[in-house]
Structures
1.
Amino acid sequence: NAGVTQTPKFRVLKTGQSMTLLCAQDMNHEYMYWYRQDPGMGLRLIHYSVGEGTTAKGEVPDGYNVSRLKKQNFLLGLESAAPSQTSVYFCASRQGLAGGRGYNEQFFGPGTRLTVL
Amino acid sequence: GDSVTQMEGPVTLSEEAFLTINCTYTATGYPSLFWYVQYPGEGLQLLLKATKADDKGSNKGFEATYRKETTSFHLEKGSVQVSDSAVYFCALTLNTGFQKLVFGTGTRLLVSP
């Protein structure tokens, strides 16, 4: 099992450019998440998905779009990058729960470091 | 809203010293609590967890006890090693819905030989 993988690992964009970050998991997990990590702020949730074909907004969704066309992939898009989107982006996934209660561990990818000039 | 507060770093220790990283939380329900560790250049790994009051999570010599009365989940290790140098995040999640993780700001630990 590769677990959770993210591509690319690094990227530099100019303001106004667009790009897509890819997250893939091979654990057949229902839930997937995108977080951003900024100095002194911990990780903040951008968007999440509770299953194939579904997405929802997290704490800081502005400027991002997501898609989950296949269960194993969760894409994060930046349509017009801004310097404020310079950050490290982490994807995570977890198994769903029978009955909807309790906890299952979130597994994280290695991150994508994005710089917007 | 739900939040996690942890001590600012960096925490600088000599090898074999005792480690404490403080973490307190605010939550509307009954959260599960976690410590995640991030080694340089890597993603986050779950270090330990506790899902109810008075539970003690432990792993790799690290321990933390879920204290509901003080809303705390302090991380401790009796004897740190250079290889423990990393950033440690305290986090919580409520055990319903989509289980958003709420993270603290992270504490960098530097251990010197």
2.
Amino acid sequence: GAGVSQTPSNKVTEKGKYVELRCDPISGHTALYWYRQSLGQGPEFLIYFQGTGAADDSGLPNDRFFAVRPEGSVSTLKIQRTERGDSAVYLCASSYLPGLAGVSDTQYFGPGTRLTVL
Amino acid sequence: AQSVTQLDSQVPVFEEAPVELRCNYSSSVSVYLFWYVQYPNQGLQLLLKYLSGSTLVKGINGFEAEFNKSQTSFHLRKPSVHISDTAEYFCAVHPGNTPLVFGKGTRLSVIA
């Protein structure tokens, strides 16, 4: 079956511009996660959706970052007034079960979107 | 706060030799532990996971890991590596109701 897909695979933008990154999770998965992976680092959590709502957005670095999942499936990560420090690979993952206390389900990752801010 | 330490940033090893990639974690609560592999230009793929039960966990591609609660470790091993195992390996901990926390990764380079 189809895995997690992310578009675009690469995005180059100029400092100060607005960008949107899209994630299509595996069909039927209720939980969706966004991570950011900087060069030489492991993925860092940004935000987690359970259904349509953001259950945990504690990883968003500042208010320039925002994410939505209006119908509980596709999600869009939005970055306003991009800065050079936002350059990274943005990863999306989904899981069938929600990440509730005491429960851990495998997260399936997409290939990522490489964002470069010039 | 939970953290994951991968002690080696790079591990070169000859083909058909054994390898161990080290991972230590810190957590004040029970955790679930994972190893993911990332091949060049690909997404993260789950190798194996420890949720409960037997402390020796077997995964895909001949990898296994052992959970050691007293040493807070979850080292990854393979008895004989192949060129195709060249990749970045990430250890991660899931402390239940908080997000996955990843280590910085270990780059495994298999030399012919």
